[in-house]
Design goal:
With 71 residues, the protein is mostly helical. It has one domain. 87% of the residues lie in helices and 0% in strands. It contains 3 helices and no strands.
C-alpha cells in the first residue's frame, strides 16, 4: 500500500508536468487524475486484496517447509 502511494505521489506530479507537452496545451488536475490515477486504482486494489489474501497461505507453507527441514 505504501509502495503504491509512493508511486502515485511521484508519478502524478510528473505526469501533470509532462501531459501539456504531449497534448499541446494546458491540462487540469482532473485531467491528470483521469489519465494517471483513476484507470489504475481498481487494478491496484485487486492486487492488494489478492496479496493480502495470499499472505497467510504463504506463511503457512513456509512454516511447514521450515518445520520439515528441522527434523
Amino acid at each position: 500500500l505504501l509502495g503504491e502511494g509512493a508511486i502515485y505521489a511521484v508519478g502524478l506530479p510528473w505526469l501533470h508536468q509532462a501531459l501539456p507537452r504531449l497534448v499541446g496545451g494546458p491540462v487540469s488536475v482532473g485531467e491528470t487524475l483521469r489519465a494517471g490515477l483513476y484507470p489504475f486504482v481498481v487494478g491496484d486494489a485487486i492486487k492488494l486484496l489478492l496479496a493480502a489474501g495470499a499472505l497467510p497461505i504463504v506463511w503457512r507453507l513456509l512454516e511447514r517447509s521450515s518445520g520439515e527441514g528441522a527434523r
